[in-house]
Design a protein that fits this description.
123 residues, alpha+beta, Ybab, Chain: A, three-stranded antiparallel sheet, 3 strands, 49% helix, rod-shaped
Length: 123
């Protein structure tokens, strides 16, 4: 190296061989991998099931990670023909609880992919 020259000196007009483009490529690869992983998790959530019991165990609901009800089981002891309103209220509460549990399950699965970055509209 010539005396008095800095090792990082680049004459004007000569493009600097930037590690930034390499960094951008790595970032794009990581983003692409995250998108692929999120698609995979979304597909898996379609068939993953969450089991929820409510009303003291008298109602059992199975719901997917996409919030699609699969089944509802009701203990016959909960069925009182003279108090249909109580059964209806119990079912509404149980379904809402199942939806919430499914959403929380999906959020946890996606958080594993995104590393906790909040991305609106994913769940």
């Amino acid at each position: 190296m010539a005396k008095g020259r800095r090792s990082d000196f680049i004459p004007r007009g000569v493009p600097k061989a930037s590690s930034q483009s390499t960094g951008n490529n790595n970032m794009m690869q990581r983003i692409q991998q995250m998108q692929d992983d999120m698609r995979k998790v979304q597909e898996e959530l379609e068939t993953e099931q969450v089991n929820v019991t409510a009303a003291g165990g008298a109602i059992t609901i199975v719901i997917t990670g996409h919030q699609h009800l699969q089944s509802i089981k009701i203990d016959p002891a909960l069925v009182d023909p003279s108090d249909v309103g109580m059964l209806e209220d119990s079912l509404v509460a149980a379904v809402n609880e199942a939806i919430l549990a499914s959403q929380e399950h999906a959020a946890k699965r996606l958080e594993a992919v995104t590393g906790g970055i909040s991305i609106p509209g994913l769940t």
